[in-house]
Write a structure and sequence with these properties.
Strand content of chain A: 5-15%
Largest interface: A-B, 30 and 33 residues
Strand order of the largest sheet of chain A: 3-2-1-4-7-6-5
Helix content of chain A: 40-55%
Order of helices and strands of chain A: HEEEHEHHEHEEHH
Structural class of chain A: alpha+beta
Distance between the termini of chain A: 33 Å
Number of strands of chain A: 7
Oligomer: homotetramer
């Protein structure tokens, strides 16, 4: 499968992976980004353990959205986190791209096993409430299918708490690190950058004021809704 | 309106916006700088939501100092924060340029809802007292005209506390982020850089000494006044 | 001794030393990396006090694995830490390369005289438990042979606690700084990078949650063992 | 005065000032470096308020070691801190160069009005004890001759505490920032870098362990003396 469309998909995923590194979110090989094409049932994802400075667009691996298995003819192994990505694409139908990193501040919140409170408008512009924290997997879940069940735990957290993945485009995994997503893979990377920034801001906010309070609802509504939904007026009009 | 003067104004605002990024104060599109020409009644400001690496001098948007509306013929929307800038230019007649960022340390103080105490000469060289914190807007103010009322709240804080905007060339907005200004847009950007630096110094000062005391008045006077006013002797003589 | 093999050994050690600087782990001349060739009984190490930007592959110094003395004909002094490296190569037969730095976060833990708890998977991917802390040397040990005894104290800590140096590829020295190692010198540098990252993550984790708990054993096992040992499935298959 | 010697002196001071910026110690124009030639009684120093990216070797200003006044023919004003530098050269006869910055961590300790405890070997390698803190100037001292009296206060602190300026090559000024020095201006800049590094390490050490203890005397002696004095064995032999 090497038509123009596939080339564009691989290119977008390649660029997103490069952007993760250029944004300072990824050290060594600790991160991966993917995109889905739902019409064709294909997920494109970074290969496992390949150094970013050697990564080429053609190295991006195609896997089945249905089974998670590499398509026939793929020569590299996909990221070891591929089952998590595939699970999330299956359960979050509005999501078009996913980015996973171990970025410094967001990972610190994940290790502290705390959600990130919404302390200001930088956060409210993109996350309509606290950045959620998922429970750790049980030993049985880890042993059965660690990476797949990571996706299951995320999806169940969103579904049982009635959260919209595009209103809260990211999550923290206890003792682990963040996942971010969006309508496209470029947006997923942008949301990974935003999570890292608001994670740092929130850490320093608490250092300056242990009794810091979260953003009043009216400001949260104003900032999220001026950028999202029908009445958005931020940015240039869509043409 | 495309004469030489307008070209220079746009160029100055363009360079100021670039400088915000190069100084590390702005991530993604989180910032904007503007300049005013009071003779012509024009404010020049960054367009809304345009990526910095694609920004060109001709993209800078001209709006009326009186109404805040784009001048006839402008093809891009101005920054969504334009009403704040216009309000401040109307109420602070000595201000020639304004810069808004979500820079990391200053935004953390804003989110902590604390003014920045003057802990040393780095601060005193440019801010003649603590960096002020404004109250959050009420729900009514937010719903009526969020961005314009942000400017109103800043101006009222300065007027009711009898503060000179060129002696305290910046402010923190509760749950939001800093605004800085100056006699020119280049000076506004410089003051945004200074706020970020002193915000970081003050955070670490308190970490090292929870009982840190503010700069004695004699040192504050010496440092501010050797750089500002009639008896200034820092820098090269004005020619 | 200037055959092809020696050239490759010096080149690998040269590149590892450059990588320490490029990774931001080394300021001024505060660091050194070495490699051993056990067949020939040679250790190759950075010269003492030479500025990194002037370092050339041919400046790398060869010393005897048995005596620690420079081989005949060497024109530069080896790193003052050479006896520590030689001692570790003698006592840790699976180690092929060693890197010493004063990297910012890892050194802070060393100065705080604390081991680094395993707070998450970033840590567990490479260190199978807390990063150990060695006791300070006694005055007698310092006066007798400071650098050699530093190696002795490290080795004794690992042996008496029954620790495998490739499962815990680094250590903190009380009041001093980290040493890292690995099967190759490139791996030693990578482990030095990882120690610095997990040191920063752990510091921030405790700032966010003073009662943070360490990674559950099942997650620790999963992450370490998916990258190491017989059942590893991270990365591309070895060919 | 434009002979070869003067050109070399200006070049050395120019390079030292550039190095301050490249090392990340200086933001905007917040720093200056100088060198003295005692035979000719000349101090060469950065001009006041000149942007670093426009600074040229010929802009470096020559002033008298005896009076602090610019030599005849100098066209730029010297740094406003010139009297501090001149005072220190007069009172510390072994010092050949001085660097002043507002570097982030060292300035935070100065603002916290605390000396920097010696928590490890990174510190002990260059500072033989805590980095001293000077008392703030009195109002009378500030009004009489602020910059000159800053030098007086530093010198008196060293003399009354019997401290050797080359064993403790830097100081913190309360509510202000660090000064560093050395036998040459290059060494002064290096000591400014070291102060900033150890200031950051010490801040994080206390965050990790509020009861952190200072380096045992035997380790302090070992590290300082293997780099300084008759029995030094770090680096390459002087030829």
């Amino acid at each position: 499968m090497s038509d123009v469309f596939i080339g564009q998909l691989k290119e977008a995923v390649y660029l997103a992976n490069r952007k993760l590194v250029e944004s300072g979110l990824v050290v060594l090989t600790w991160g991966n980004a993917s995109a889905v094409n739902r019409e064709r049932g294909i997920v494109a994802i970074k290969p496992s353990g390949v150094a970013y400075d050697k990564l080429q667009p053609e190295d991006i691996v195609l896997v089945s959205l249905e089974t998670g298995e590499p398509l026939p003819g793929e020569r590299l192994r996909p990221s070891s986190d591929t089952p998590t990505h595939v699970c999330l694409y299956q359960r979050f139908p509005t999501v078009g791209g996913i980015a996973h990193t171990h970025s410094r501040h967001a990972t610190s919140w994940a290790q502290a096993c705390r959600e990130i409170p919404c302390y200001g408008t930088t956060h409210a512009d993109s996350f309509y409430g606290p950045v959620p924290l998922c429970r750790p997997l049980t030993t049985a879940e880890i042993e059965e299918a660690y990476e797949w069940n990571t996706g299951v735990v995320i999806a169940e957290h969103f579904h049982s708490n009635n959260l919209d993945p595009l209103h809260l485009p990211g999550v923290l995994l206890s003792y682990h690190a963040p996942f971010a997503w969006g309508a496209t893979v470029a947006k997923a990377v942008e949301n990974a950058v935003i999570m890292e920034e608001v994670a740092g801001l929130a850490l320093r906010t608490e250092a300056l004021n242990p009794n810091a309070t979260t953003t009043p609802q009216a400001i949260l509504d104003k900032h999220f809704l001026r950028k999202h939904g029908e009445d958005a007026y931020y940015g240039q009009p869509k043409t």
